[in-house]
Request: fold
Amino acid sequence: MTTDVDLWDRLQSAVSKVATRTEELGDSKNAFGLWTNALTAAINAGDFEEAIRLYEKVSEKYTAMENPDAWMTNVISSATGRLVALARQHSGDTEPSETGNNE
Reply:
């Protein structure tokens, strides 16, 4: 019987293959979109370890771009806030931050 963990691993592996191939074909902007979709899926699934791994990958791709599109900046910004919230949940910290935001 296939478990949810097995299915999740298979999905992440498939997304990684497609995104990597898209990059190899020189389409960095669409590859970025694939990586950010995978990041969002990991955050939505509460998979903190995978979300961190993907966030690192996405941030590397973003900073390597000479002129990222505005939507890319928006995606990074949104993912950052959601990842901080997931990190707090993962660590058991439910207190609001010093700014009053608990994103």
Observations:
- The longest helix spans residues 70-91.
